[in-house]
Amino acid sequence: MAHPPSDSRNPGMPLDPSWFQRAAVNTPAVEARAAELGARRPLVGAHRAAWLVNAIRCMDLTTLAGDDTEDRVARLCAKARAPLAPEVAEGLGVAGLTTGAVCVYPTMVGAAVRALAGSGVPVASVATGFPAGLMPLALRLAEIRYAVEEGAAEIDIVITRAHVLRADWAALYDEIAAMREACGAAHLKAILATGDLQTLSNVYKASMVAMQAGADFIKTSTGKEAVNATLPVSLTMVRAARDYGARTGHAVGFKPAGGMRSAADAIAWQVLMREELGARWLRPDLFRLGASSMLADIEAALTAYVTGRPVAPQSLARA
């Protein structure tokens, strides 16, 4: 792009279907490019360790279980404050490293805010009838306002997939714009549930509508769909963000979520961001990884790098 996007928050714009209406994603080409990115020569040594540390810095550490309790959230927040053992963090020279955020259900936001006080780690909340989103709009907006009042700095909303499948872009735009307004100063991460959208062309169009409606981030999945984050879907979405930035001058962040479990996955998605959008998108204000389960694998890899001894991920302390 000729000029880098502004770091100011995406203000959105009036709906303009001419930006995406005729977009047709070349699926074989996208899949080939994604395979090429995923097959890059593996990183080793200090270079690999640096990328894994950055993955932690960009991770939304998450608990979205039906049996969540304030105690579980407090343990998760303690892990977010100190994701690596002190000796490992010291050996890497990253004392004070934290995750990018902690993500919980709205009723757990207050507990997370209290547990993270003074840490600088923001609390994100899923909302709008997560994960299906099949609630009346008024109730979804009320859930956003509740989470913000409890102290959430970020809101991960879910869209109505039927709007995309019917190509009802005005309805999708109006829904997301209303959610953005309900967020106030809290940043909105729009979950597209890409596994439900059928085609990459639909993924591109939904991404563009979400950004026109003022989304601060576009996010692949709830983690509850049959298919969650994949490199081809992610490539489609980051190219939509690149196109939007080129037209408006505003940067929109990206969050892949679900299905990523390994240190290798953490590196693959960061390589995608750097190759397609540039190093600026490897910071937590524009990139998040919604994959808490891979923290143990990253921690094991970094512990082995520092100590020189192999470590089993399951042997590490869990949140």
UniProtKB/TrEMBL annotation:
InterPro entries: Aldolase_TIM, DeoC, DeoC/FbaB/LacD_aldolase. Pfam families: DeoC. The keyword Coiled coil does not apply. One of its GO terms (cellular component) is cytoplasm. Keywords: Lyase, Schiff base. The keyword Transmembrane does not apply. It comes from the Bacteria. Pathway: Carbohydrate degradation; 2-deoxy-D-ribose 1-phosphate degradation; D-glyceraldehyde 3-phosphate and acetaldehyde from 2-deoxy-alpha-D-ribose 1-phosphate: step 2/2. GO terms for biological process: carbohydrate catabolic process; deoxyribonucleotide catabolic process. Its EC number is 4.1.2.4. One of its GO terms (molecular function) is deoxyribose-phosphate aldolase activity. It catalyses: 2-deoxy-D-ribose 5-phosphate = D-glyceraldehyde 3-phosphate + acetaldehyde. NCBIfam families: deoC. Belongs to the DeoC/FbaB aldolase family. DeoC type 2 subfamily. PANTHER family: DEOXYRIBOSE-PHOSPHATE ALDOLASE. This is Deoxyribose-phosphate aldolase.
